[in-house]
Each structure stands twice: as structure tokens, then as C-alpha cells.
From TrEMBL:
This is SDR family oxidoreductase. It comes from Lentzea tibetensis. InterPro entries: KR_dom, NAD(P)-bd_dom_sf, Sc_DH/Rdtase_CS, SDR_fam. PANTHER family: OXIDOREDUCTASE, SHORT-CHAIN DEHYDROGENASE/REDUCTASE FAMILY (AFU_ORTHOLOGUE AFUA_5G02870), SHORT-CHAIN DEHYDROGENASE_REDUCTASE FAMILY PROTEIN. The keyword Oxidoreductase applies. Keywords: Oxidoreductase.
Length: 241
């Protein structure tokens, strides 16, 4: 197994894309720790995980608390996947200052400090994979704050790759498009018109599945991607071409 002996952390790994990533890394042989915010039952159902820790992001000290809990299970980490995020936001007119602060705290500040606090535990030759979004490169004013956080995350990826390169650590972003997860369920599932429209936005003509993203992450986590760093890997199925 390509990740045998590796230890991975997947934030927001109890459902959706994060769950698919955790399960794929586990199938590849990694010992996987996941974080969850509230749904302990969902976290317990993730197949192949080694342990789960509760971690609520968006508060000062959240990253330090996460790693303290992680340390009770593992003494180091090889792969960090920053997946936990607030999935949507309002448009410019409807966005409150509190909403703005929250989405940036969870989607940008938390990954920043998860990495900073994790570097002393991350072994040389490790992997950092940030889950971004196709919305960072496609204008979507209806979710302007969310899109902006993902653009910031991609810039974070670029700078980290340069800083950590001497340690053999690769840093990349994966940018999904519309994916059939719980976050999109209320408007996508059971709505044939919405599903058809979402599928039409991708060159490959369908809505993405969590496993589509997990497979890309698994590649970047493996030694096969040892010469790829500082990149945003588009995983939208060709949206916006």
C-alpha cells in the first residue's frame, strides 16, 4: 500500500469530501486521524480511520487545541489535509461583518495555524494539501466571501511551498467544483433541473462526487506527486472552460 506507515490528519473528515479523503487515505495504508465539529456519530462511521478528535475551528487557540488532542494518538504526522470549511456565504449586500469574520476565521485563519502549529510534528518529505474551490477562479458574486477565502488559501499554498521546499515537503491545493455532498443537498438532490444545470457547467458533463476529489488528494499525498508543489490542481471536471 502506497501510504503504509504514514500518519495523516484530515480536518472536517466526518462527512462529504473530507470523509471520502479519509477513507481513501486509509485504504492506501495510512493511519488517519480526522476532526469533527459536532457530529460524533458521523465521525464514528468513517471507515478505516484510526481515531477522531473533536475540533471546532474559528476561535483563537483552535489549532493548538487540535494538535494537543492529536498528540494523544500520534507522535508525528506525514500528511495534513486542510478540508474543514464553511461551505457557503452571502453576496456583497447581504453579508454581515460577523459572517465575514466567521468564514475567514474557519476557512483561512484555521488552516494557517493548523499548519504553523503542526510543522514541528510534520516529518521532512511530508505533504500538505489544502482543499480550495473552483470558485476561487470563477466569478460567483453570490458567494463572494467564500470565494475570497479560497483565493487566500491558494496564496497560502504558494508561499508555503516555497518556504517548506528545503524540507522536501510539498504543498498543493485541490479545487473542487460542484460536488454532491450534504452541503449542496438542499438545492441539488431530488431536483432534476438543478442537477442538469450543475452537470452542464462541467466539461465532463456530470456533477462531481466526493471520491473524485479524494482520488486527486491521494495522488498528491503519495510519492508519485513528489515533484509537484505550489500548484492548484483543478478538480472541477472542467468547469468554466
Amino acid at each position: 500500500m502506497v501510504l503504509a506507515g504514514k500518519i495523516a490528519l484530515v480536518t472536517g473528515g466526518s462527512r462529504g469530501i473530507g470523509r471520502a479523503i479519509a477513507e481513501r487515505l486509509a485504504r492506501d495504508g495510512a493511519t488517519v486521524g480526522i476532526t469533527y465539529a459536532r457530529d460524533e456519530a458521523a465521525a464514528a462511521e468513517v471507515e478505516g480511520k484510526a481515531f477522531a478528535v473533536r475540533a471546532e475551528f474559528g476561535r483563537h487557540g483552535d489549532a493548538a487545541a487540535l494538535w494537543e488532542a492529536f498528540d494523544a494518538h500520534a507522535g508525528h504526522v506525514d500528511i495534513i489535509v486542510n478540508n474543514a470549511a464553511i461551505g457557503r456565504s452571502s453576496d456583497l449586500a447581504g453579508l454581515t461583518e460577523d459572517d465575514f469574520d466567521e468564514v475567514f476565521a474557519v476557512n483561512v485563519r484555521a488552516p494557517f495555524f493548523v499548519v504553523r502549529e503542526g510543522l514541528k510534528r510534520l516529518r521532512d518529505g511530508g505533504r500538505i494539501i489544502n482543499i480550495s474551490s473552483g470558485a476561487a477562479r470563477i466569478a460567483m458574486p453570490e458567494i463572494i466571501a467564500y470565494s475570497s477565502t479560497k483565493g487566500a488559501l491558494d496564496t497560502f499554498t504558494l508561499n508555503l511551498a516555497k518556504e517548506l521546499g528545503p524540507r522536501g515537503i510539498t504543498v498543493n491545493s485541490v479545487a473542487p467544483g460542484i460536488v454532491d455532498t450534504d452541503v449542496n443537498a438542499n438545492w441539488l438532490r431530488g431536483n432534476a433541473e438543478a442537477e442538469a444545470h450543475a452537470a452542464s457547467l462541467a466539461a465532463l458533463g456530470r456533477v462531481g462526487q466526493p471520491e473524485d476529489i479524494a482520488d486527486v488528494v491521494a495522488f498528491l499525498a503519495s510519492d508519485n506527486a513528489r515533484w509537484v508543489t505550489g500548484r492548484v490542481v483543478d478538480a472541477t471536471g472542467g468547469a468554466g472552460l
